[in-house]
Amino acid sequence: MAMANGRQLQGQPLELIRKALQLDPKNGKALNLAGSAEFQAKNFNKAIEYWQQELDATSPADAEERSRVSQMIEEARTAAKAK
User: Fold this and answer.
1) Can you give the pTM of this predicted structure?
2) Distance of alpha carbon 38 from alpha carbon 44, whole angstroms
């Protein structure tokens, strides 16, 4: 749905993400998408919160995913400082 919406997560895609988080607050994909939606909306601190939750829920054995999420958190921190 977001792809058809110009890669924007606002609107109905975000509503579905929020519903997914209500059903499973630790769902990694939903946390990732919620963080991305907040980042797109320039709510960098909220994006960091979602991505930190995703990082906390990611298995220590999944080093690649943990690295990717950590990079997203750092990008959001940098953007928040520049804001």
Assistant:
1) 0.86
2) 6
